[in-house]
Automatic annotation (TrEMBL):
Pfam family, one: PNP_UDP_1
Protein name, as recorded: Uridine phosphorylase
Membrane-spanning segments: none
Catalytic activity: uridine + phosphate = alpha-D-ribose 1-phosphate + uracil
Listed GO biological process terms: purine nucleoside catabolic process
EC number: 2.4.2.3
Domain (Nucleoside phosphorylase): residue spans on this chain: 31-265
Organism: Pedobacter lusitanus
Length: 291
């Protein structure tokens, strides 16, 4: 088996992976990712026991237990460029032997659940909604650097997406689905819909403050998309990269969105922490119930 070079897989002198700064044994089979590092303790305060707290830059990790269920919580920071780092490093931690630098024969598939914040683009999805993403629709560029493919069952939807966005010259969309088992268990009873992952918070999500927005009526462009019973429901900055890289690497992923903004009603939540807390409690309840 081919050894991964020191430049491809960067291991720190203490045996931890380059950015996440954690060791292979620090990762549980169930991982929760969040964008905001401060959200980690809002999750692990519900744990019965915290086994470790480590980190570097925006990548903070806590691993601990609820009952006998071991869970790792990691912050990714903002954007799919950070998802590239977190997912490749998480995968290396469980699927590469750090002593030999070879890929293990027996691969581990992690359950990875994002608990993130998001803005809704449909008028029937008010602030406070908790939504599980059926698909991630990437308007960023991450997955154009990786080999990946669209399954036959998703080709019709993908073609429709490409046609819908073909007049936006900055955009070459990619589309990936949630893990169906996680969607049915963790995402059960939540709102469902296609989540658009944008490469920014302002103009790439149709916002205008002082810099002029080059794409007119962006929110309308999203909420008028329709194919069979699919619609675009919300906007954020990581889900598509998470779904696509998880698939490429053989992991299962679900993104759960706490809706903080109603983009069609021009509103932003006055109590974002309460909405995020609702999403955290739901996800933790379901993770511990589904073990
Ligand atoms: O709250 P998090 O998980 O960071 O998610 C959303 O919030 C950030 C923008 O404010 C982006 O990361 C977006 O995806
Ligand atoms: O509108 C929103 C709200 C939270 N996070 C986003 O990326 N967009």
């Amino acid at each position: 088996m081919q050894k991964l070079s020191e430049a491809d897989l960067v291991i720190n002198p203490d045996g931890s992976i380059y950015h996440l700064n954690i060791l292979p044994e620090d990762v549980a089979d169930t991982v929760i990712t969040v964008g905001d590092p401060d959200r980690i303790s809002e999750i692990t305060k519900h744990f019965d026991r915290i086994e470790l707290k480590k980190g570097k830059r925006e990548f903070i990790t806590h691993t601990g237990y609820i009952g006998t269920k071991r869970i790792t919580v990691i912050s990714t920071g903002i954007g799919t460029d950070n998802i590239d780092i977190v997912f490749n490093e998480l995968d290396a931690l469980v699927n590469v032997d750090f002593k030999t630098r070879e890929v293990k024969e027996q691969l581990t598939s992690l359950d990875i659940i994002r608990v993130g914040t998001s803005g809704a683009v449909q008028s029937d999805l008010p602030m406070g909604t908790i939504l599980a993403s059926t698909f991630g629709l990437g308007l960023d560029a991450l997955m154009h650097y990786y080999e990946h493919s669209v399954p036959d069952a998703e080709k019709g939807l993908f073609e429709h997406v490409r046609t819908h966005f073909k007049d936006l010259h900055a955009v070459n969309p990619y589309l990936t689905s949630a893990d169906p088992v996680l969607l049915d268990t963790i995402g059960k009873g939540m709102e469902h819909g296609i989540t658009v992952t944008a490469p920014g918070f302002y103009a790439p999500q149709g916002r205008q403050v002082r810099a002029k927005n080059a794409v007119p009526n962006f929110i309308q462009k999203l909420n008028t998309f329709s194919y069979e019973n699919y619609r675009i429901t919300n906007l954020e900055m990581e889900t598509a990269g998470i779904y696509a890289l998880a698939k490429v690497l053989g992991h299962k992923a679900l993104s759960v969105n706490a809706i903080l903004a109603s983009r069609v009603n021009f509103q932003f939540s006055k109590d974002p922490n309460a909405v995020v807390d609702k999403a955290i409690k739901l996800v933790l309840e379901r993770i511990t119930a589904s073990k």
